[in-house]
Amino acid sequence: MKILVCISNVPDTTARISFTPDGKAFNTSGVQFIINPYDEIALTRALELKESLGGSVTVINVGKPDTEANIRKALAIGADDAIRVNADPSDAYFVASQIAHVAKTGGYDIILTGKESIDYNGSQVPGMIAELLGIPSVSVATKLTIDGTTATLEREIDGGKEIVTTPLPFVASAQKGMAEPRIPNMRGIMSARTKPLAVTEPQGSPAFTVNEKYELPPAKAACKMIPADNPAALIDLLHNEAKII
Amino acid sequence: MPVLVFAESIDGKFKKSAFEAVSYANETAKILGTTTTAISVGNITGDDLKQLGEYGASKILSVTDSRLNNFVNQAYASVIAQAAKDEGAEVVVLSNTYTGKAVAPRLAVKLQASLATGVIQLPSKGDKFTVKKKSFSGKALSEVVCNTPVKILSVAPNSFTIIKSPATPSITAYNPAIPDTDFRSVSGEIVKSSGKVSVTEAEIVVSAGRGMKGPENWGMVEELAAELGAATACSKPVADIGWRPHHEHVGQTGKAISPNLYIAIGISGAIQHLAGVNSSKVIVAINKDPEAPFFKAADYGIAGDAFEVVPKLIEAVKAFKASHH
Ligand SMILES: Cc1cc2nc3c(=O)[nH]c(=O)nc-3n(C[C@H](O)[C@H](O)[C@H](O)COP(=O)(O)OP(=O)(O)OC[C@H]3O[C@@H](n4cnc5c(N)ncnc54)[C@H](O)[C@@H]3O)c2cc1C
Ligand SMILES: Nc1ncnc2c1ncn2[C@@H]1O[C@H](COP(=O)(O)O)[C@@H](O)[C@H]1O
Q1: Which homologous superfamily does the CATH classification assign to the domain defined by A2-219?
Q2: Ligand with the closest atom to the CA of B277
């Protein structure tokens, strides 16, 4: 089983989000970057499948050299090798094109991603990779099992879950539940240093969108406190002031 | 060049998010000086189809291919892409639901279109076509410029108010050819979660955390939710220890929701929890610790013991309902 896991580099979940004064760029100073949490879930499931079925796990990232610390972390967690496409991942279509290009000749049976990157929250890259390759895709999957050349997945839907079966190869995006992320151990960290990390230059491909401006959401007014012995006052405010019930 | 909107349905009925999407599409059409065409997939009665007219759709394409009775994202993308081409649509609108998320990226590749997901405002069309969306898990907003002739926008649920704009729609049966290779993945069984209202689409969500002490105390949480017609949710540790099912877990690593009203009971308000709920329109926090971080993110707060406050709140909701029906 050859598995490709797509990992993106995102600000830590507790990072304070701020932007340059002109609002044109994310302010990275003092921000620690991590592997997108959903991608870690995908990576762990890939490693579990490799352990039971054999094969290899390759991680791929479209990013500048500063993402290599996290690529090495993925190798430390257990991936066999890594590919970095040396480019700024500013547009989902551009990123998906780069990954699809690598996948076209890689002969992967499974391509796993996270359900979304926690910075731009696009949920775009996995479906685009699949469409570019002309293979099925299953989004927001909480379970993935393989039986021969068929995969069975559970995906979240409104009000429940859906069981989907698909032949290999396919793309799936991971949601919490698919696996419990692993912490790299000492041996992993040591061996990660010598595992192959190939750097390739991007293919010419258009970017369709530009994130042009950012702002912080309007600050909330101070919380209105209601006496604990009079919750009826809350209902009154929700009805007459917030007009929500 | 009409705006094309995919109106999602379930069990033969349109979802609320479909009406939001049609309203959004129709307001966009007004900005662009054009009309709105809606596309529906599934066996939906003529009367139900006409509902889309109330929100401004002047033409409705009704797809009834029985192979689409079970959702297959690849095939849905083919159908919508074909419709966009046949209609000459420059803007295609979907809902940013599980269905929309599964279809939109494939559609973007087929149409070589810009895709903005989870948009919360109408587009502005100056010299650039720009939309606003949430980013950084709701901690920021970004403006996305769409640089291609065709644009695909998926609307965040509950972020755009439904606007009535009655039109008398024409209804056309529309069944484009779909390649067999689109049906390689097969949707089998659907397992409905026990909750009556789906947490991602609910207008009101009642959520509780470790402050509830144990699963046996969730009766009052469920009762409050039932009285309000709300969905129930929970914090991560509560799902992790198995007090509540995982599908209720909201936050950074759970579901991201944006209901009109979010009531948090015995939840501290950690940043990862807030990441999934802070785009709710109104937030109420109930916590016995007056210094709990949640009060900083809330609109209304009650500092008190949930075991005393919630039963009183249930009585207050009952009294309110009795005097307002
Ligand atoms: C990478 C990462 C991702 C995470 N993702 C998520 C996520 O998606 N969702 C999430 O929820 N968490 C997430 N967390 C965990 C998060 O940091 C908090 O630990 C968690 O939200 C705390 O849950 P809680 O508020 O229920 O429990 P606690 O922090 O234990 O808080 C319980 C609260 O209940 C109050 N309380 C106690 N007794 C009563 C009473 N009788 N009446 C009223 N109030 C009472 C207390 O004052 C306290 O504020 C994540 C953490 C990490 C590191
Ligand atoms: N720059 C990138 N390099 C590699 N994989 C990526 C990149 N950006 C996104 N992905 C993958 O696509 C998933 C969804 O990302 P997004 O579409 O940006 O929400 C992520 O969870 C990653 O698995």
Answers
A1: HUPs (3.40.50.620)
A2: 1
